[in-house]
Amino acid sequence: xxxxxxxxxxxxxxxxxxxxMTLSLQPGMFHFLTGPSGSGKTTLLxxxxxxxxxxxxxxxxxxxxxRDLSRDDIAALRRQVGVVxxxxxxxxxxxxxxNIALPLTVAGEPVDMDALRDLLNWVQLGxxxxxxxPSLSGGERQRAALARAVILSPDLVLADEPTGNLDWxxxxxxxxxxxxxxxxxxxxxVATHDLNLIRATKAQVTARVLRISGGTLQLxxxxx
Length: 224
Ligand SMILES: Nc1ncnc2c1ncn2[C@@H]1O[C@H](COP(=O)(O)OP(=O)(O)OP(=O)(O)O)[C@@H](O)[C@H]1O
Known about the structure:
34% of the residues lie in helices and 24% in strands. The protein has helices at 41-48, 71-80, 96-106, 113-122, 138-150, 168-183, 195-202, and strands at residues 2-9, 18-25, 30-34, 56-61, 64-65, 81-84, 156-160, 187-191, 207-213, 216-219. One of its GO terms (biological process) is cell division. InterPro entries: AAA+_ATPase, ABC_transporter-like_ATP-bd, ABC_transporter-like_CS, ABC_transpr_LolD-like, P-loop_NTPase.
């Protein structure tokens, strides 16, 4: 799925922020990525969807060797990876339903209206289908972002601090959706510094916890 061998990365050719990272994301598994603010969680997620390329080591994502990706490879990879950003952006003049369907429309693919309705209901946004994004609450924005991230049926779902701005109830509601996705066979990787969130999720699903510490990646102990 995602394989890293001795991967390093530094911004703008500078000193390595991340180094010597060896990682294998296991298909169908729920993973957390944790570490203090500024440790490189977002950077590592960006490597996973080839938004950044490693400056050292070897890395493959869903069978694509990141070193020699063509434009077509990048497009193919991005289709297989759904990303929920920390602060998701929408086209504010388009209703929520159209925003969620955007990956399909951009790809020139038809929108199955029944499937779109099901997806909206799954993220509990049925009543907000025609609303404009600025009217959504923080939790609703994250759930809309999740729906948009999975509309192309990716194999891997990455979420970057998806609960960072949410209260506990809203956070757990979002985590339930990620757990459901995982139980349906998707590989999930959630970056968070919230250890309570990790513990509450681990009570419901088997999850591996990866921790960035000192610029490299470690598997966290069973206490987490
Ligand atoms: N585009 C960039 N150019 C240069 N430095 C960057 C860039 N993006 C991030 N950094 C730096 O890289 C380091 C890691 O940032 P990153 O956002 O990956 O950390 P993080 O663990 O996700 O942090 P947080 O939990 O606060 O979101 C920080 O020092 C940050 O300032």
